[in-house]
From TrEMBL, chain A:
GO biological process: attachment of spindle microtubules to kinetochore; cell division
Principal cellular location given in the protein's record: nucleus
Alphabetical UniProt keywords: Cell cycle, Cell division, Centromere, Chromosome, Chromosome partition, Cytoplasm, Cytoskeleton, Kinetochore, Microtubule, Mitosis, Nucleus
Biased composition (Low complexity): 210-223
Designated name of the protein: DASH complex subunit ASK1
Quaternary structure note: Component of the DASH complex consisting of ASK1, DAD1, DAD2, DAD3, DAD4, DAM1, DUO1, HSK3, SPC19 and SPC34, with a stoichiometry of one copy of each subunit per complex. Multiple DASH complexes oligomerize to form a ring that encircles spindle microtubules and organizes the rod-like NDC80 complexes of the outer kinetochore. DASH complex oligomerization strengthens microtubule attachments. On cytoplasmic microtubules, DASH complexes appear to form patches instead of rings.
Cellular location(s): Chromosome, Centromere, Kinetochore; Cytoplasm, Cytoskeleton, Spindle; Nucleus
Family (UniProt): Belongs to the DASH complex ASK1 family.
Organism field: Lachancea mirantina
UniProtKB/TrEMBL annotation, chain B:
Protein name: DASH complex subunit DAD4
Organism: Lachancea mirantina
GO biological process: attachment of spindle microtubules to kinetochore; cell division
Primary localization: nucleus
Family indicated by similarity: Belongs to the DASH complex DAD4 family.
Locations listed in the record: Chromosome, Centromere, Kinetochore; Cytoplasm, Cytoskeleton, Spindle; Nucleus
Annotated GO CC locations: DASH complex; microtubule; mitotic spindle
Residue stretches in coiled coil: 13-40
Keywords: Cell cycle, Cell division, Centromere, Chromosome, Coiled coil, Cytoplasm, Cytoskeleton, Kinetochore, Microtubule, Mitosis, Nucleus
């Protein structure tokens, strides 16, 4: 009713005006949408694609790092969330690096833009340098010894690092033969690589170090103790005699006499390290001194001889 | 009398719908590209973390063994 009172000219004018405003607003909306579309399609997507290409280039450059870490920890690093098969490798590598850090740093990162290739070469070098670092003369002789299974990430000792849990021991156990063992003991402290993935290996290294010390300064027996693995198998052998296994047979009688407690004096590198050590502690009555079986053997030998 | 404006309005609305449709498609494409790139970058992220950890452990070891030297 009020509209009828408005003069029709004004009403038409207002209608015109409103229609034009509507048209204008719609056009503005349309232009805004087209502007957004053009912005995204013309500027943003090409830049994003270029960014992805650059990221791919970076990843290609970093592949050698990925391979290095994989071989070091015997891992598999996938692009998906769960990369590390054995996370225990990482923290324990610190310990491995204690002896190997300098060597590793010197060898693994001579120049960071490194070629993607020979991880084997990396494995070889630190052993050499580690020997220099360790400074043991006996160890130096090991230098020439084969870094045979480099591709399989063996330490210089010939350990197969692929299976940090038990493969080292298995390797040791498998190679109870004399010569390699003596060499390995020399090698192992120098060969503490990143691949040693557990405290077990640390303990082994410690034992081997003590063995070496004993060899150099210890019991009347002159030469290196043969394989601890063999000792563990026999559980009663003190093998501080010069030659490894071969003389063990002859010395078994003596060793059994010498040892009050059968497994106690033996240098153990069993699969279950702590347990065996504890067993040794429990069993060894004659020599309560040392916490580990290693020095006991020396003392036993000294006492008996 | 109102028809011409209505026709104009309808035309403009049609154009708006087309623009919005293209805009949506472009945004979907953008999202896919970003997803691809993000997936590929997780590897890089892991590399970075490992390098960082290695660096930290190296520093720690050097400090612990007194091998650390002052910077040149």
């Amino acid at each position: 009713m009020t509209r009828t009172r408005v003069p029709p000219a004004m009403a038409e004018d207002s209608l015109e005006r409103l229609d034009q405003e509507i048209t204008l607003h719609l056009q503005q909306i349309d232009s805004n949408f087209s502007y957004c579309f053009s912005k995204i399609a013309q500027d943003i997507i090409p830049n994003v694609v270029e960014y992805g290409a650059v990221c791919d280039q970076v990843m290609d450059s970093c592949n050698w790092l990925k391979n290095m870490f994989q071989e070091a920890g015997n891992l598999q690093i996938d692009a998906v969330a769960g990369p590390k098969a054995r996370p225990a490798a990482e923290p324990t590598t610190k310990r491995a690096r204690d002896s190997a850090t300098d060597g590793d740093v010197q060898t693994l990162f001579p120049a960071k833009p490194r070629l993607a290739g020979d991880s084997s070469s990396i494995v070889q070098l630190p052993a050499m340098q580690l020997k220099s670092l360790s400074g043991a003369s006996s160890r130096a002789t090991v230098a020439a010894d084969p870094m045979v299974d480099v591709t399989t990430t063996t330490t210089t000792t010939g350990r197969v690092l692929q299976l940090p849990d038990s493969s080292d021991e298995e390797a040791r156990d498998g190679d109870t033969d004399a010569q390699a063992l003596g060499e390995r003991k020399l090698k192992t402290p120098a060969g503490g690589e990143d691949a040693d993935g557990s405290t077990m290996q640390r303990q082994r290294r410690k034992r081997k170090l003590s063995l070496l010390l004993q060899q150099q300064f210890g019991s009347s027996s002159s030469s290196a103790v043969p394989s601890p693995a063999t000792q563990t198998k026999r559980n009663t052998n003190i093998t501080f005699d010069s030659s490894p296994l071969r003389k063990e047979v002859a010395n078994q009688g003596e060793s059994t006499k010498e040892i009050g407690a059968p497994p106690g004096t033996v240098i153990h590198f069993p699969t279950g390290n702590s347990a065996s050590l504890e067993d040794d502690n429990d069993n060894d009555v004659s020599d309560p001194k040392s916490s580990r079986g290693e020095s006991r053997a020396g003392s036993n030998n000294d006492s008996t001889r | 009398m109102e028809n011409p404006y209505e026709q104009v309005h309808q035309n403009i609305l049609g154009r708006i719908v087309n623009n919005v449709e293209r805009l949506n498609e472009s945004i979907v494409t953008l999202n896919q590209e970003l997803q691809y790139i993000n997936a590929r970058n997780t590897n890089l992220q892991l590399m970075g973390q490992m390098c960082e950890n290695y660096h930290k452990s190296v520093q720690f070891n050097l400090d612990a063994t007194n091998h650390k030297r002052e910077p040149l």
